[in-house]
């Protein structure tokens, strides 16, 4: 598992297709080819069927191939925090999280390390790890990269951030995001076409296989959000779950983007929920209470790494 991985020598893992030799140079993602992890711990704030009562075993990878101006996890997305670890250490982390009672292994923004993560998953499965693997991604990932994970990822948890490429470029520096995200989600659904659940010992309904597509509602972007829900529901119907999120949190760095420098209003979120209900969407999740808060952002102090 320590041998050189060719996919990093001319990196095309994401739609940027940088072709950077990441064995010696950082890509747009601010990472080379060595695993960079900022936190590995139980996380209680995912969708109920993911966190359950004992938590999701989240592994937060440092770096990111997006460039979101509103990023809540900017310390790790910029690669400013984290530890560099070996593939074998990642396998050990998987088993440690299982021992702590995690319902799944939740790989958060692992996109730029997929070739190494793939090997670690294969190793863990060979050693009889019992819980599902989940890929938590912004969907700015190439289809061929996802195909390399077929049979290894049980649950896909992708974002669908934008339906307008001009917004994707303005707010996330992500050219042609819409086409890339649509293709990526289509591949995820191809791999996991049905959502399967089981009840744990606490009676919690836990997802074992399937796809949950998330959309984070942005201030003033209700129409775009409705277009995304319409696209997803008309294409996939009840074969996927859709998670509507209202936790957009201004990060203090949005002076050049005053139109989104605020929290989402209650009326905006209510309008989106009513639209989804009127379409007939039942396989979905909504957020309640005060979710747009720094208190919901984990402390990236290398816990568990």
UniProtKB/TrEMBL annotation:
Stored InterPro entries: Aldolase_TIM, MJ0674-like, Pyrv-formate_lyase-activ_prd, Radical_activat_CS, rSAM, rSAM_sf
Keywords per UniProt: 4Fe-4S, Iron, Iron-sulfur, Lyase, Metal-binding, Oxidoreductase, Pyruvate, S-adenosyl-L-methionine
Pfam families documented for this protein: Radical_SAM
Cofactor section: [4Fe-4S] cluster
Superkingdom in the source lineage: Bacteria
Cofactor note: Binds 1 [4Fe-4S] cluster. The cluster is coordinated with 3 cysteines and an exchangeable S-adenosyl-L-methionine.
MF (Gene Ontology): 4 iron, 4 sulfur cluster binding; lyase activity; metal ion binding; oxidoreductase activity
CDD domains in the record: Radical_SAM (cd01335)
Binding positions for [4Fe-4S] cluster per the UniProt entry: 64, 68, 71
Coiled coil regions, renumbered to chain: none
Record Gene3D superfamilies: Aldolase class I (3.20.20.70)
UniProt KW Lyase keyword: yes
Domain Radical SAM core residue range list: 59-190
Family from the record: Belongs to the organic radical-activating enzymes family.
Entry protein name: Putative pyruvate formate lyase activating enzyme
Organism of origin: Butyrivibrio proteoclasticus
Taxon lineage: Bacteria, Bacillati, Bacillota, Clostridia, Lachnospirales
């Amino acid at each position: 598992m320590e041998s050189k991985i060719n996919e990093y020598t001319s990196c095309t893992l994401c739609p940027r297709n940088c072709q950077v030799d990441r064995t010696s140079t950082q890509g747009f993602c601010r990472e080379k080819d060595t695993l960079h992890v900022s936190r590995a711990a139980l996380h209680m704030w995912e969708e109920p069927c993911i966190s359950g009562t004992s938590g999701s075993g989240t592994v937060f990878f440092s770096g990111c191939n997006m460039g979101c101006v509103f990023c809540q996890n900017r310390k790790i997305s910029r690669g400013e925090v984290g530890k560099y670890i070996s593939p074998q250490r990642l396998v050990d982390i998987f088993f440690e999280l299982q021992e702590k009672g995690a319902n799944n292994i939740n790989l958060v923004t692992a996109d730029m390390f997929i070739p190494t993560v793939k090997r670690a998953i294969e190793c863990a499965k060979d050693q009889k790890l019992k819980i599902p693997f989940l890929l938590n991604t912004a969907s700015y990932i190439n289809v061929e990269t996802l195909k390399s994970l077929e049979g290894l990822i049980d649950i896909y948890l992708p974002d669908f951030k934008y339906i307008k490429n001009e917004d994707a470029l303005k707010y996330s520096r992500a050219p042609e995001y819409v086409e890339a995200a649509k293709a990526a989600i289509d591949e995820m659904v191809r791999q996991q076409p049905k959502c399967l659940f089981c009840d744990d010992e606490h009676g919690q309904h836990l997802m074992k296989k399937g796809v949950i597509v998330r959309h984070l509602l942005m201030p003033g972007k209700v129409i775009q959000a409705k277009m995304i829900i319409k696209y997803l529901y008309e294409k996939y119907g009840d074969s996927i779950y859709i998670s509507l999120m209202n936790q957009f949190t201004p990060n203090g760095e949005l002076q050049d983007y005053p139109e989104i420098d605020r929290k989402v209003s209650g009326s905006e979120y209510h309008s989106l929920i009513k639209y989804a209900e009127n379409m007939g969407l039942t396989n979905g999740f909504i957020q309640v209470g005060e979710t747009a808060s720094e208190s919901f952002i984990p402390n990236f102090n290398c816990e568990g790494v």
